[in-house]
Amino acid sequence: MRLTIALLLLVLNIQGVWAEVRTPYPGTRIIETGQPFASYLVKLKKAIRGNKMGIVGEACATCGAKNIGVNIPGNRVVMIFNPFFAVRMLKASEAAGIEAPLRLYVTESADNTARLTYRRPSAVFSVYKVEALDEMAKELDGILETIVAQAAK
Questions:
Q1: pLDDT tens across 67-116, in order?
Q2: What is the CATH number of the domain that holds 53?
Q3: pTM
Q4: Which of 104, 116, 103 is nearest to 37 (CA)?
Q5: Domain contains 73
Q6: Domain span at residue 82?
């Protein structure tokens, strides 16, 4: 009887893993680039800079894992923003400051290609219900769309 209950609990726990929600937030975009991870990352960074957005940080889970002797597929969070947008954002809503920088999440798929996941700025900032933020976010939506299109080439 105990073995049956233990197996049942194990199966229920495994089902929770299978039920992952890949896009828990509205406005999340997932793009299968079809490009090799490393070269896509280079193109993405070039497109970011070419559209006058700054790369203010980069988190590399792959690098951290390697430091402890573990190999995982490519995994980067590229954090971007522009000081002109930062000033506008904070003028409109100090509380919205937590949303900057915007994050672009690049992961390596099983076939070694890059997947890009990000949230549209209009979705990120809409929760504040501030018209000036909504206007700024629409501009940022367009910039991110351009970045994504240029990195795809």
A1: 999 999 999 999 999 999 999 999 999 999 999 999 999 999 999 999 99
A2: 3.30.310.70
A3: 0.84
A4: 116
A5: yes
A6: 25-151
